[in-house]
């Protein structure tokens, strides 16, 4: 994998107005990139642009309101961005949502909405931007630790995150002759507005599995992510635990499954007392 230069590059960031996405946008501006954020929340877009304009007065950032899970809206917003930018050098598909619950309590509409935003949204933005993507550019997706290992309570979230890694692996093979860099960010629990929403519906077992693990800040995740993105890494983990879980899952998958099952059984047994 080759290295990526961000200075002067036109980069689209979906889900770019809050949490990890907003911090990624800030790091990109600091690197000298021209950033085009896509988000449904117009208020958050305006707030972020105002914040960045103060911190980086010479930074080039614009906001575009659209639902990434709506293909027609994605087509329109990409057309507007390309008209302004001319061409695109990078896509960071970061939009997503999670509603952790017991499987029996998770509604079909929740499976559908999460898949539409997290996975289909990534397909939509990639499909529309690809004809305008420069050779030697990059496509990057934000998946999760649950993109390579199942976790109690996340039955509606694991599917699209697993799918993103498979999608990325396929694109990496198909686009090799165009020298387009493909990568997937797999962050751990991160202190974001989205995480706060997840806390409202998490089963007790999910909370206890996380134990006393310290949340990473969105800023720290973004800084480490961009550093590895520039080096051409494919799977990007940003802390020791995530890297260890990734290693164990692919080197010793049966052991990892046994460990997770053992931990869940222990928690359930303890809660019955």
Global outline: globular
Number of strands: 9
Number of helices: 10
Q: CATH fold name, please?
A: Rossmann fold
**C-alpha end-to-end distance:** 52 Å
Mean pLDDT: 94
What is the CATH architecture annotation?
Answer: 3-Layer(aba) Sandwich
Describe what this molecule looks like in 3D.
The structure is a single chain. This protein has 273 residues and is α/β, with parallel strands linked by helices. The protein has a single domain, classed as Rossmann fold (3-Layer(aba) Sandwich). 52% of the residues lie in helices and 16% in strands. It is built from ten helices and nine strands. The chain has helices spanning 19-30, 42-55, 71-85, 108-129, 155-174, 193-199, 204-210, 218-230, 240-251, 253-272, and strands at residues 10-14, 34-39, 60-65, 88-93, 133-142, 181-185, 190-191, 216-217, 235-236. The strands form two sheets. It has a seven-stranded parallel beta sheet, sandwiched between helices. A two-stranded parallel sheet has the order 7-8. α1 (19-30) crosses α8, α3 runs parallel beside α4 (108-129) and α9 packs across α10 (253-272). The model has no long low-confidence stretch (mean pLDDT 94).
List its traits:
single chain; 273 residues; alpha/beta; seven-stranded parallel beta sheet; two-stranded parallel sheet; 52% helix
